[in-house]
Amino acid sequence: IEEIYNRLQVTPAAAGGSLYSNLQAAGRESIKYSLEKLHQPVDRTVWLMPGNLVNACYDPQRNDITFPAAILQAPFYSSEQSRAANYGGIGAVIAHEVSHAFDNNGAQFDEFGNMKNWWTEADYKEFADRTKAEIALFDGLKFGPTTLNGKQIVSENIADQGGLTAAMTACKEEGQGLEDFYANWARVWAQKSLEAAIKMIVSVDVHAPGPLRANVQAQCQDEFYETFAVKPGDGMYLAPEDRVKIW
Fold first, then answer.
1. Is 103 a catalytic residue?
2. Paired sense of beta strands 64-66 and 57-59, if any
3. Is residue 31 located within the same domain as residue 72?
4. What domain range is 26 assigned to?
5. Catalytic: which of 123, 160, 173, 179?
6. Positions in the chain short of pLDDT 50
């Protein structure tokens, strides 16, 4: 357990505590704890997320990825699911986090977590051009009462694109069918939200809404069209010239 959790104290209501006062105290302790670490060696044994959190992350300054235990369950992963479904779930998530090392933010850090340009000029120019295409792909899309800002969500969309491509390629190389793969990719991003929540989340989140993460990235893969015989005029059809491929 990280030391910060040993420092947090909760004052019950009977002793004069409230939700606000406890959150305020926890915030102060968290800031103090962070400042104390400024001149200390990086502790690579610390997990950046608790084990009960359904999430995952990549840290460019440590060049590591974290997968809490809670995400290793259906629909992301299950021994009851097909291998193709697991590739479409946890496989794509793992590859997503690895891809963050090469998104528009991670690309600025080297393998030791130092901010350093390690790209050739030609490679980075090509990457920047493809990044602009990814921005344009999502910019202006409608979701509920909102309109997406492609630049705000580009880093996560690059990781989604790279992660889905890598997982799909691995699934194909194993000889697995892609029906379960794409079905579970869609399943893990299903969500149900109030309009007020959608407005708030879209205004601040660096991720696209789940249904668009599922649909738009799949629309950019030729294998998706082959798997489900998607043709011009179908709702999921995107013209070949509009499909974005970064990796």
1. no
2. antiparallel
3. no
4. 1-40
5. 160
6. none
